[in-house]
User: Which sequence fits this backbone?
């Protein structure tokens, strides 16, 4: 027989841990900046990053409830995927094809589209920052 | 009251990536070489684990960590084949992450393991986003799934170090253009080590087992073990 480790959650989307991570980052940066509340989050998602922004949005209100980011708005900036062919130098969208549509080359690199980060937050602050003096 | 914009620029999966680095350091220190198996459901991950474990059990000390949404059926198969097996039931999550792997490493005696195989949850989208800290990732594809998988799941094919194409014994019976499939895989991952094989007939398994054995031995040799 094998041993088992069971988790008790029952939610089937990788956007849940992603959303929790997003909240942790936003609250930490908000706290450092002396925020009373975090009102807006600006998230950058590359087309190739397999994160569905609707799903992040779905979990957001539930997860942020009762925190300084409760009621905040999520803004998603989508970055289109861009591939570059190392053989002929052509750049193209992964929607066209994966091998280079110009020369058929398969030595390609991803130029853009894998981004997934929190770019900025908007906060309301009392004017007193809690940041340690430098 | 002041309204202001605070620049952040922090990778959202950074916390998972830091934990994955901790897992890697732990495996390195213990001299455990580790593989992460990714695949769609039904591609034959567990069959490949069984074959790998039963054929290598005499030469290497093996452990298997099995990620599944529920049940311990896969881990039981790995244990029956001769490995120390731990099941992680993700309780619905579609992938393993670095925290779950950390919990599983806690219950294993790493000093008694040469090769650790982590069988991720059957899914080609989500596991590709969550680093575990394993040394190499292996994508297990299979002939009946169709030859368009690299084109549909570029993220999964880009991030792996080896590709197994299972169930090649079914090639005469299904529409599967091997050239088209491999062209897509090569575009995403040039020079990818590829092993067409059949867990059912045993065809092609020797090359795969040789790769696994060589990678494990090389890992241990470079660490003076």
Assistant:
């Amino acid at each position: 027989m094998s041993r088992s480790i069971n988790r008790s959650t029952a939610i089937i989307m990788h956007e849940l841990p992603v959303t929790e991570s997003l909240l942790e980052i936003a609250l930490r940066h908000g706290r450092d900046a002396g925020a009373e509340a975090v009102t807006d989050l600006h998230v950058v998602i590359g087309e190739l990053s397999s994160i569905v922004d609707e799903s992040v949005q779905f979990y957001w209100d539930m997860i942020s409830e009762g925190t300084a980011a409760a009621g905040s708005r999520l803004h998603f900036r989508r970055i289109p995927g861009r591939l570059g062919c190392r053989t002929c130098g052509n750049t193209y969208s992964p929607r066209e094809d994966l091998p280079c549509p110009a020369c058929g080359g398969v030595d390609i690199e991803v130029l853009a589209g894998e981004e997934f980060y929190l770019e900025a937050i908007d906060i309301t602050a009392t004017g007193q920052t809690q940041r340690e003096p430098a | 009251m002041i309204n202001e914009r605070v620049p952040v620029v922090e990778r959202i999966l950074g916390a998972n990536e830091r934990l994955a680095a901790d897992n890697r350091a732990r495996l390195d220190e213990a001299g455990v070489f580790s593989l992460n198996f990714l695949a769609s459901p039904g591609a034959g991950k567990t069959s490949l684990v069984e074959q790998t474990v039963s054929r290598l059990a005499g030469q290497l000390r093996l452990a298997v960590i099995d990620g599944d949404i529920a049940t311990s059926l896969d881990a039981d198969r790995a244990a029956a084949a001769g490995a120390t097996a731990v099941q992680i039931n993700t309780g619905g999550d579609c992938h393993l992450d670095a925290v779950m792997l950390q919990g599983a490493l806690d219950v294993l005696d790493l000093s008694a393991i040469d090769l650790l195989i982590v069988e991720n949850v059957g899914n080609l989208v989500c596991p590709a986003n969550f680093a575990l800290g394993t040394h190499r990732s292996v994508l297990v594809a299979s002939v009946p799934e169709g030859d368009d998988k690299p084109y549909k799941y570029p993220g999964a094919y880009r991030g792996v170090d080896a590709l197994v194409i299972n169930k090649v014994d079914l090639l005469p019976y299904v529409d599967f253009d091997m050239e088209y499939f491999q062209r897509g895989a090569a575009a995403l991952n040039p020079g990818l080590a590829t092993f067409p094989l059949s867990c059912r007939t045993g065809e092609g398994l020797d090359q795969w087992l040789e790769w696994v054995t060589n990678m494990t031995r090389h890992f241990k040799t470079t660490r003076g073990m």
